[in-house]
Amino acid sequence: TPALVAALAGQTTVSELTHDARHYVVHTLPVKDGVGEITAGMVMLQDITALKQAEAQRLQLTLERERLEMVNRFVLAISHEFRNSLAVIETARYLIERSLPVAAQVSIQNRLDTIQQTVARLVEQLDNLNTLSYLVTPHWLECDINSLVEAQVLELTHYARHKNVTLTFTPGRLKYPIAGDMAALGRALKQLLLNGLNYTPSGGSVQVTTTSTRQLLTIVVKDTGIGIDPAQLPQIFDLFYRADPARALDSGGVGVGLSIARLIAEAHGGGITVSSEPGRGSTFKLTIPIRKIAIERILGQPYEELKPDL
Length: 310
Known about the structure:
Low-confidence stretches: 245-254, 305-310
Helix content: 40-55%
Largest sheet: 5 strands, mixed
Shape: elongated
Strand order of the largest sheet: 5-7-8-10-9
Strand content: 15-25%
Structural class: alpha+beta
Radius of gyration: 30 Å
Number of helices: 8
């Protein structure tokens, strides 16, 4: 080869070679005898396939992140414009409702209420989009999960009373902190709570509990609702999936709440599982791994020095 000929001529060369989907760095250099005469050429191959693949992956991840950030900026811009338009619609509805005589208001109140509910649903979906867009470039901090759950339960207490459903929270002893996006995790939990409240008949209950080990934080949302058919369980986290379209729309959902919750959990390295029995309710478990590096940064001490929970 030219490289070997060059080595015999006293030159050292470095080149790259691809063969059978493998990548190599080829080093050629002259071999001299005891008196300095070139007697042979040496060729050494270094397999750099793994390095090439890692470089390609880094490039792909960089391009993907740039694309996601562009989508993120687009979502935020569109969300802002939609919010302004929805605010105009809601303001107009409010002014019409206030200015109408009582007799006229009674005849169109249902339509005005429909407008208000539709605006509220659209704002909720914009909030979901914003939550996902922020997960593209997360800035995670220590999360007080029990306080987060308590805040979400308090926020939905009035709604639970309106539906005559008992909403309770039993906090666990969470010794190990987690790092995460509090706003996103709050939205994931809210979606699980709303799912339980929307599909639990009057007189039922939705219970929330938290537990943790050295490895895993778990939030459990258990309801006594209508349950889910086993055949539908694999699809309930699919985007826009509704087991009962009519009932879902009546309850204010469009089939993205559970999808949003799962994506947020997965963005934190965790997930959501569900078990259910028709007519007897459902149990959702949101789990988040407790990362060693997060604990050390938050507490300022080595993870191994912490005593186990059990």
